[in-house]
Known about the structure:
membrane, alpha/beta, Small_GTP-bd, 5 helices, 6 strands, 28% strand, Rossmann fold
Amino acid sequence: MVDNKKRIIEKNRKLVIVGDGMCGKTCLLYSFVYNIFDSNHTPTIFDTYAASVQVEDKKITLTLFDTAGQEDFDRLRPLSYNDTNIVLICFNIDNQTSAKNVTEKWYPEIHHYCATCPIILVGCKKDLRTDLVTITDSTENCKQMLSIEDGKRLAAQIHADVYMECSAKT
């Protein structure tokens, strides 16, 4: 008798997420793992999450390493890069400095420690583009808001494999 069931292949992958402090990394991971938005932000030093996803006939267990973006942790953060399979570089789409740090800080660091890893560039806080409170409260925020095209250019500049935008809220 022949068993026609597909065999599920299990894989483990380590994903490290980097970016400036308060750019949305922790909320993004928390929303992905628990499917809820937690507005009570606690600055992260280092944290680890786990999630399983199914891709075709593969069950992939992701170990997600959330890193601190603050300068105080620049010497500790590289300890999390060992055996990394994928890197997410995040920036806040309504903050020009956060985007600038992608090219000046995060990409050079990742290129040094994880040169062969695929990079996904993530524009966080996408909901702010349509949030009326943000738009009406601060003309300065609107001036700093990066467009999708800006994000795509930034991704090309750092040779990211993928560019995407997201909101941990939606």
